[in-house]
Write a structure and sequence with these properties.
The complex is a heterodimer of chains A (444) and B (221). In chain A, 50% of the residues lie in helices and 18% in strands. Chain A has 9 helices and 12 strands. In chain A, strands 4-3-7-6-5 form a 5-stranded antiparallel beta sheet. In chain A, helix 1 packs antiparallel against helix 2 (147-182). The two termini of chain A are 16 Å apart. With 221 residues, chain B is α/β, with parallel strands linked by helices. Chain B folds into 2 domains: 2-119, Rossmann fold, CATH 3.40.50; 127-217, Winged helix-like DNA-binding domain superfamily/Winged helix DNA-binding domain (Arc Repressor Mutant, subunit A, Orthogonal Bundle), CATH 1.10.10.10. Chain B contains 8 helices and 12 strands. A 5-stranded parallel beta sheet of chain B has the order 2-1-3-4-5, sandwiched between helices. Chain B has a 4-stranded antiparallel beta sheet with strand order 6-7-8-9, with helices on one face. Chain B has a 3-stranded antiparallel beta sheet with strand order 10-12-11. The radius of gyration of chain B is 18 Å and the shape is globular. Classes of the chains: A alpha+beta (444), B alpha/beta (221). At the A-B interface, helix 4, helix 5, helix 6 and helix 7 of A face helix 1, helix 4, strand 5 and helix 5 of B.
């Protein structure tokens, strides 16, 4: 889905452009009509002036007295012309020089407007009016060159277009700024979500616009309750394991008691189911404890975690002289649950420590998610077998190196992080090399 | 060897205590965190087996307090919580070993042996010194000549303590403290009787008497 910002921006720009276009059309048309109307009124008034200056000689021939009219009628091709028509007689203003205007007789009291071609390619607007003076029917036509006016109008239109374009641009810019500022809280929230997924913060600030504030509160509430729930269920599982296993230990003690020394068959019948129960508890409870990708991570301090774990492994296997080399790339980050990672790495390292001769290598790097590689210099094992085991989903089988409970748990954790688990023979040390790929991010 | 077993389960605790006693460890049982912490500080135990889920005070806290007060008694953690988180925390707090429940007594004995030997600076494996080899499975000792002699419980405990501390001057009180458990009748003169019995079985030269001071097993370092 497109972002709110681009949707707002495109929508508002369209509306603004439409508005300006409408305004331009309306203004152009209105100006045209206004100018035409005014011009026609003026020209009509001119016809009246011309009419007032018409005189008739005794023969009935008419003449126009130019002294009573504006000087433009005297200047050649000035752009203002008149012509008066009476039956066969037609008088032209001096400004027309030797050109003529094609006019038609108009009934007295009527008026007619025409666009006519003028001399020297002028465009003329002509108003003809019919009059009766001293019993004679006259048609007076006054025409004016409208080219200068059209030029001015065009200039005005260009100016208007320019101002509109600049205005539109400014408005769009202004609007982008307003939208950006209005959406700023959302951007802050998004940044916070990213920081949350990296584990840099544990809660989102609920200071947001009213529209999303309930969403933020709900998110925080969900997260808090999820963290509490995971902790509670882990605690409950831990207690359950503790009590069940203590009772199993007791059962083992009973099986070892003197009363049963003479009856090994009975002892075995107690010990075997006890061992099976232990296996089931270990597997299922550990699987249930895996948190997986349900929670935003807490930003695990990888070097500290690995260091502690390696120290522990060395203490557990202190009778074996072995070297654990580990390296963590600078950008490696794990955003999941700390305990899950500890369990995953613990089991992998424990397995490597169990089978190695003297050397274990661990490397953690960021390659579209977290990549963990654990390798040892032990005898290795049939990689094919392990791979097929991992596909079947790991039945605990202690007969193969590393295929016991530990790797089964590893498999559960990798699966809950939608990760990948691969087995290879280490090309340098010859032992088993386990590669784990965990998903990139829990929340983005 | 004196052991402190801290286990709150009313069924498992006493059974484990008697199993450890049978294996030749004078074992005291504590069922509560605060008590256990005090006992571990006061009594000169050779090793402590510590359950983590305790009433009163958690085992991890108890262990942390001991280590803070520089109580270096080796500790084996016994717990049903066997996640790596718990293991890391346990070792960080100063545990020497870690055994997950449920376990078989044999497993625990092997761990106790290994930790004791490691703390005495000895190689893991059978306990041997000056041609003597202690067999912990049936509480007997094999002489250089190959003869196998069985030992009584106290003789076994006393010899094992000597063999784990060869060449050191050990007072009668020290021996009593490490051979008998808390509630037993402690008459330090009885130690002399047992030392004489050991001398009869193993030869007179092995245990030297320092009048007024105590005994030295084997060569003085």
């Amino acid at each position: 889905m497109r972002s709110i910002r681009s949707r707002l921006l495109i929508g508002l720009t369209l509306v603004l452009a439409l508005l300006l276009l409408g305004q331009w059309l309306w203004l152009t048309l209105t100006i045209d009509r206004l100018i035409e109307k005014q011009l026609i009124t003026r020209l009509q008034e001119e016809t009246e002036s011309v009419l007032a200056n018409i005189q008739f000689d005794p023969q009935g021939m008419m003449t126009v007295d130019p002294s009573g009219l504006g000087s433009s009628y005297q200047r050649v091709f000035s752009g203002l012309y008149y012509t008066v028509k009476q039956n066969d007689q037609q008088i032209y203003s001096r400004s027309l020089w030797d050109s003529e205007l094609a006019t038609e007789a108009v009934v007295s009291g009527q008026r007619k407007t025409d666009y006519l071609p003028g001399p020297q390619e002028q465009s003329l607007l002509a108003v003809s009016a019919g009059y009766q003076k001293q019993g004679r029917r006259l048609t007076v036509t006054v025409a004016e060159d409208i080219r200068p006016m059209q030029r001015e109008k065009q200039q005005l239109q260009w100016m208007f277009k320019l101002i509109s374009a600049v205005g539109l641009l400014l408005l769009i810019l202004l609007q982008a700024v307003i939208i950006n500022r209005a959406l700023d809280p959302l951007k802050q929230t998004r940044k916070q979500l990213i920081r949350l997924s990296r584990g840099e913060i544990s809660e989102i600030s609920e200071q947001g616009p009213a529209e999303i504030q309930p969403l933020l509160s709900e998110l925080n509430r969900l997260m808090t309750s999820m963290v509490a729930k995971t902790r509670r269920s882990r605690q409950a599982l831990g207690n359950l394991a503790h009590r069940l296993k203590t009772q199993l230990s007791l059962l083992n003690q009973v099986a070892e008691s003197d009363a049963l020394q003479e009856r090994p068959a009975v002892r075995d019948q107690i010990q075997q189911p006890a061992a099976d129960i232990r296996h089931i508890i270990d597997r299922e409870l550990k699987r249930a404890r895996v948190a997986g990708l349900t929670l935003p991570g807490k930003g695990v301090d990888l070097p500290a975690l690995v260091e502690q774990l390696v120290d522990t492994i060395k203490l557990i296997y202190r009778d074996k002289s072995m070297q654990v080399d580990w390296q963590i790339s600078q950008d490696a980050r794990f955003n999941g649950d700390r305990e899950d990672l500890l369990e995953l790495l613990g089991n992998l390292l424990d397995n490597a420590a169990k089978w190695c001769q003297s050397q274990i290598k661990l490397s953690i790097s960021q390659e579209q998610g977290l990549k963990l590689v654990v390798a040892d210099d032990g005898p290795g094992c049939d990689v094919q077998d392990l791979s097929s085991l991992s596909q079947r989903g790991f039945r605990a089988d202690e007969s193969l190196p590393g295929s016991g409970l530990g790797l089964a748990i590893v498999w559960d954790i990798v699966e809950s992080y939608s990760g990948k688990l691969e087995f290879e023979r280490d090309s340098v040390m010859g032992g088993l090399q386990v590669t784990v790929h965990l998903q990139a991010e829990s929340l983005t | 060897m004196r052991l402190l077993l801290v286990e709150d389960d009313p069924g498992l605790g006493p059974r484990l205590q008697s199993a450890l006693n049978r294996a030749g460890y004078a074992t005291d049982l504590s069922i509560e965190g605060n008590d256990a912490e005090a006992m571990g500080d006061i009594e000169p135990y050779d090793l402590i087996v510590l359950d983590l889920g305790l009433p009163g005070r958690s085992g991890l806290e108890v262990l942390t307090h001991w280590r803070q007060r520089d109580n270096r008694t080796p500790v084996i953690i016994l717990t049903a919580r066997d996640g790596w988180q718990d293991k890391v925390e346990g070792f960080k707090a100063g545990a020497d070993d870690y055994l997950a429940k449920p376990f078989q007594t044999e497993e625990l004995l092997v761990r106790i042996n290994a930790v004791l030997r490691r703390c005495a600076g000895l190689n893991p494996g059978d306990l041997s010194y000056a041609g003597l080899m202690l067999d912990e499975s049936d509480q007997s000792v094999r002489l250089e000549s190959g003869t196998k002699l069985s030992l009584t419980g106290t003789e076994f405990r006393l010899l094992r303590f000597f063999m784990l501390n060869p060449g050191k001057l050990l007072s009668k009180t020290t021996l009593t403290e490490h051979v008998y458990q808390l509630d037993s009748d402690k008459d330090s003169n009885v130690i002399e009787v047992y030392i004489n019995r050991l001398r009869q079985k193993l030869g007179q030269d092995l245990i030297e008497t320092r009048r007024g001071q105590g005994y030295i097993f084997g060569q003085r370092d």
